[in-house]
Known about the structure:
Layout: E1 5-13, E2 21-29, E3 35-47, H1 56-61, H2 63-66, H3 72-75, E4 79-88, E5 91-92, E6 94-102, H4 110-117, E7 122-135, E8 141-144, E9 150-156, H5 157-167, H6 178-190, H7 196-209, H8 221-233
Antiparallel strand pairs: 1-2, 2-6, 3-4, 3-5, 3-7, 7-8, 7-9
Amino acid sequence: MTDLDFTCTGVRADPYAAGPTLLFRLRITAPPQTRVHALALRCQLRIEPARRSYGDQEAAGLTDLFGERSRWATTLQPLQFALVPLMVPSFTGSAEIELPVPCTYDMDIAATRYFEALREGEAPLLLLFSGTAFTGPGGFQVAPVRWDREAPVRLPVAVWREMIEQHFPGAGWLRLPRASLEALLAYRSRHALASWEATVTALLAAADRADTAPPRPAGAGPARLGALLSRSAERPAP
């Protein structure tokens, strides 16, 4: 086993990434005078929600993940955030390197919903490390990174929001089944609507006009959307 220590000294949004990406600044420390030729790391990021307190508004936003606050003693369990590889170049003693972590704004992902529920402060994360170290003063010595290597991280909510705003300014992201997307596209083309925003606005207006119709039983999303689109098709385009 190679005795390495890991510390996260900061986190920031990557302003040049093609998609939402966080950069975690890592300091890696080896025993004095130890030559590390390379590190092949696997870095797991985990959200530790029990390590902070939550206001009433935040608690309401976390209900879907953890249930009512009265249940949090048993439901406030860690959430998987990311699992990313990292190659660290040669160093002696210690080195600092940035770990890029691609993120998503998919609200079906538990980690995204957790971050979106936070209003201020910091999100408690834990970095866990494993992998292989190539060391030795002459030739290579190959040894695994100790399994208990970890580093706590406090991710500022402001950094998360800065990253999301950089790629989705003033907007959100919604995932729909393929059948629903096809129905929406057909509706948009049929009514010559200029954008998806105009398409959804027109559908909401049609739903308001149809709110006197008998209630429909809960069912598959595409089927219910298809029924609304069919009814809307009978009305003139807004």
